[in-house]
Structures are given as C-alpha cells and as structure tokens.
Amino acid sequence: xxxxxxxxxxxxxxxxxxxxxxxxxxxxxxxxxxxxxxxxxxxxxxxxxxxxxxxxxxxxxxxxxxxxxxxxxxxxxxxxxxxxxxxxxxxxxxxxxxxxxxxxxxxxxx
Length: 110
Description:
The protein has one helix at residues 34-45, and strands at residues 56-62, 84-91, 96-102. With 110 residues, it is α+β, with helices and mostly antiparallel strands. It has one domain (21-102). Strands 1-2-3 form a 3-stranded antiparallel beta sheet, covered by helices on one side. InterPro entries: RNase_P_Rpp40.
C-alpha cells in the first residue's frame, strides 16, 4: 500500500505550491573560499532579474565530514555525524532564510 497514511513519516507539498518545468543543479567541489561563495550568491540573485526564471533559489555549502575545521577556526568534531553545512534560501525580494547544521561535538556558529 503506497498511500501516505501507510507510512510513519510523510511529506506533502505545502499549499499554495507551483509546479515548474525545469530546475537547475550545479555542483562545485574542492576548497572554496568565502569570497567565492559571496560571488556565487550575487550571481544567483541575478536570476531574479528575469521574472520568469525563479521565485526563489537556494545555495547549500557543505563541508567534508572529516574536515579538520568546521566554523571559524574551531576544530571539527566529526566522530558522531560530521554535519558541517549551511543553506541559504533566497526569495525574489532578497529576503532569505539561513539554515546551519553542526555536528554533535561542534559549537554552534555565532
């Protein structure tokens, strides 16, 4: 039975919602400095200049699970989960949500 009531945890798209024809995913790997991330954010916000392209966009920056440093100059305690990421969700009016995740042995970023 593949009905939502047969699962312990389910996700339903919130209303109102919009179905889009296309989505774009770009993955960049390697050691990326903060200035490059700022440039990426600025370039992504240019998509709002064309009204038909995007209502919102997201940029996720994910560090390696065994990275020696996670936030600022803090040592990264990766022994449990290795979480080390942040995510911007930016809206057309340039309001944004910022979600950050840290491992169980890490301090929360300021």
